[in-house]
Specification:
single chain; seven-stranded mixed β-sheet; 339 residues; Rossmann fold; binds NADP nicotinamide-adenine-dinucleotide phosphate
Length: 339
Amino acid sequence: MTTITNRQYYLAARPNGAPTPADVPYRDVPVDEPAEGEVVLRNLYISLDPAIRGWMGDDPNYIEPIALGDAVRASVIGRVVKSASEEFAPGDVAMVMGGWEQYTTVPAAMCSKLDESAGIPLSYFLGVLGPTGLTAYFGLLEVGKPKAGETVLVSAAAGAVGSIVGQIAKMQGARVVGMAGSDDKCQWLKDELGFDEVINYRSCGDYAAAISKACPDGVDVYFDNVGGDILDAALACLNKFARVAVCGWISTYNIADAPGPSAKNLWQLVANSVTIQGFVVIDYMERFPEGVGQLVEWLMAGKLQFREEVVEGLDNILPTFLKLFDGSNSGKLVISLPE
Ligand SMILES: NC(=O)c1ccc[n+]([C@@H]2O[C@H](COP(=O)([O-])OP(=O)(O)OC[C@H]3O[C@@H](n4cnc5c(N)ncnc54)[C@H](OP(=O)(O)O)[C@@H]3O)[C@@H](O)[C@H]2O)c1
């Protein structure tokens, strides 16, 4: 019997700043036969998410840190190549929390079967129809709670989550203002996604002044993807009873000993009776079928546009992951491992 070799990128050391090849080296290991109830997936797509950087550290988080020596954790979509479960046959396609590796061996009970016959690109189940779209959907509608006529400000607006947030906010009848890091991204938001106003935060100068100018009636909902100084500036522009949906703080993830956001404008929470609430998408797990159903409907109706950047090859995974932190990604970032 021929042994299958699995290349995997694993966590050798907790990064201090941006992860390096020494923190995340690779090794080639044999793929074992699945134990009773397990399947072996040949991964086709690996999702690259900013959250992975958090799991590489050991600060308290919403899930356990990646253990040193383990493959870097990520959502994957793969084809079953070996099955010791009645639920899956070789050839089936499944999505599961796997790793930065060619083959993932997991209990079948943790896998969600995907239907290839629907004609939807499989990678979309990691993006617009997966955790990314669901984060935007539940974070905006359940935490931000925008009403028609209100102003919604979203940061990292041209990113995977942010671009969907803005489009859903438009569908609620809100005025939508996006902040992004390049003129090209801003133009895409305005010309193609229908954002009402955009701010290139790299060239705008004073953030609070730029937000005030783009939001002359103030901000009712701030969907925060970045934290740091942009969060602080947004706090200074909030209306009475505004909501801040804290989705992520990507500006801090690679800062060694991150100081957290400046608290300068936190008093605005009191001054304007503001609600600020963090969330993680898995808070809404029981409602995922509802969210996916709505996202599919919008996508099929042409009401939702979605950009993804698919980079081929496992050996490109670390440099590709780092694109999330310098803004050189264009939409949802995915590694593909063609069959
Ligand atoms: N709470 C949850 O359940 C949940 C789930 C998914 C994602 N998230 C969070 O959502 C946020 C966006 O994630 P995503 O997957 O959609 O990634 P993404 O927005 O597609 O990519 C990250 C983007 O962040 C921007 N960025 C990077 N460093 C920045 C900085 N220092 N200041 C301002 N912007 C910066 C870059 O865009 P520019 O070119 O515009 O700078 C980059 O393209 C992250 O904070 C992530 O942790 C949370």
